[in-house]
Design goal:
Number of strands: 10
Distance between the termini: 48 Å
Strand order of the largest sheet: 1-4-5-2
InterPro entries: NF-kappa-B_Signaling_Reg, PDDEXK-like_dom_sf, Restrct_endonuc-II-like, YqaJ_viral_recombinase
Shape: globular
Organism: Zophobas morio
Radius of gyration: 18 Å
GO biological process, one term: DNA repair
Helix content: 40-55%
Largest sheet: 4 strands, mixed
Low-confidence stretches: 18-24
Order of helices and strands: HEHEHHHEEEEEHEEHE
Strand content: 15-25%
Structural class: alpha+beta
Protein name: YqaJ viral recombinase domain-containing protein
């Protein structure tokens, strides 16, 4: 393919990606997600080394066959309970949200778990099965929770963890500058 044909094809493809809606309804979620780089993969992409075979990475991102496992099943089953606890603890209401597509970069997308009902913040929920019977403090101290660490007696999110990149990507894609990261 010559350069001019490639540029034209790229422009057509990017125009197709640009949607008028901020969110995609659940029925088209999977189809729209397949043709975009999603925030859940930002950490993996950012951490690629110069020696990494990018073709294999691109293939695994675009052609993933992962359907879940016991850990993801536990997380999905526990999410509603975590949402209720979060809403009570913070005295706020949230609502489900679909797939957001970046207006600035339409090849990027994100699927936060929730958004505050006033749309001032996103909510991303993680329910690690390895820590299911522990308090957050116990999980961090026992090192069962690879997402968090203790710094000056405060529980913090690891800045090099894929989930950190995920919520940063969610803020970029949605143009919402606050995320509650609920573990």
């Amino acid at each position: 393919m010559d350069v001019e044909t490639f540029v034209t094809a790229k422009e057509v493809f990017l125009r197709k990606l640009s949607l008028n809606l901020d969110q995609i309804e659940i029925d088209t979620w999977g189809k729209e997600r397949e043709i975009r780089v999603t925030a859940s993969n930002f950490g993996r992409i950012y951490k690629l080394r110069a020696t990494t075979a990018t073709a294999k990475t691109v293939e695994s991102l675009l052609c993933s066959t992962f359907k879940g496992n016991s850990h993801t099943n536990y997380g999905q089953q526990s999410e509603e309970k975590a949402v209720k606890c979060f809403e009570i603890n913070k005295s706020i209401k949230t609502e489900r949200c679909g797939l957001f597509i970046s207006k600035q970069f339409p090849y990027l997308a994100a699927s936060p778990d929730r958004v505050l009902d006033d749309r001032s913040a996103l909510v991303e929920i993680k329910c690690p099965s390895k820590s299911q019977d522990l308090s957050p403090e116990e999980a961090v101290r026992k090192k069962n929770n690879h997402i968090l660490y203790i710094d000056r007696q405060r529980i913090e999110t690891k800045k090099n963890h894929d989930y950190y990149f995920q919520v940063q990507g969610q803020m970029l894609v949605t143009s919402i500058s606050q995320v509650y990261f609920v573990v």
